[in-house]
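Handout, section 4.2: multi-component inputs.
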Amino acid sequence: MCKTCGCAISPANAHLTVGPDRATGPIVEVLQDLLAANDRVAMHNREHFDEHGVLAINLMSSPGAGKTALLEATIVALRDRYRIAVIEGDLETDNDAARIRAQGVAAVQITTGTACHLDAHLVHRALHELPLAGLDLLFIENVGNLVCPASFDLGQHRNVVLLCVTEGDDKPAKYPVMFRAADLVALSKSDLLDVLDDFDPLRAAEALRALGRPTPMVRTAARRAPLLGPWLAWLERELAARRPAAHTEFSGISATVTA
Amino acid sequence: MREALVHELTVCQALLAQVAEIVATHGASSVAKITVEVGPLSGIEPGLLASAFKAASTGSCAAGAALCIESSVVMIRCLVCDADSQVQPNHLVCATCGGYRTRVVKGDELRLRQVQLEVTKRPISETA
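Output:
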């Protein structure tokens, strides 16, 4: 009970707050998830992906952590063997989609205006602009933000969260909802670790482990192709896992932290 | 009004859509009180949800309704020793055995629990 939110209103005193020509009516018990409508569309998106055997990856991070650069490098490494497309989410501009298209793959830009995250409806609309039947791998690059995107299922099979080594190594402790949603955490721009003495990958791994899930962590460096090995290996395992049976749901990943 | 850069507004719009459906189903005129459950691991900030509700509900059937936000503690169950612990949102580690493999059993909910409806006192035929 508090004085501000109205939870002190009861049938006995409601007439004092709701006006003379209105009377409190029945109480309806609901118990429905607030994001049920989004989740229904997300499930529909996932059915589209499964029907076409497409692995969908939702890529999230704070702004500037290197999502687009990692995608560019990933496309260069995999485009000869897999058919890839990207959905780009940004508040404004189609700069990122242009960067992706320059690598020779299809990209759809969603500009969200003032919305701080992608939702399943926005992704569904973008799907109609993509040749899903001709794809193996779809990346959805979410709006740069470590808070809001975590709450919205887009229909992806896996969440990948980038933790840039120029950020604090305690980010998983500060943003537990986001990092708990991760199926893989990528320590991006990890080639900078040599010159940064304040980011400890072991501390980051420990903060991640404290979120109660065995989320694997890999190092990535978009400008150093040889350092992309563990990331590409993870992707290829996920691609292989989706090939035979399209309907496996979120099987837990049992890799160990390798930071 | 320019939309705030918070996802609480999106959640609020989803909430209002569900409430409008309930109001229509029950033939009510408006809403007195809405109760939602928002756990610390839901990713929703109760204060921002309350402000977003004030803005988003204006002109809707829930305008003027009280929004009661019920929070909870975070409870986990250890996948190793099966013990339950109450923990902080960023430390989901078993308090009994120290195990890191746990499952959240409470604290990530984001649910509409209850709607208290309002009906007009006068029959519709008299107001027509």
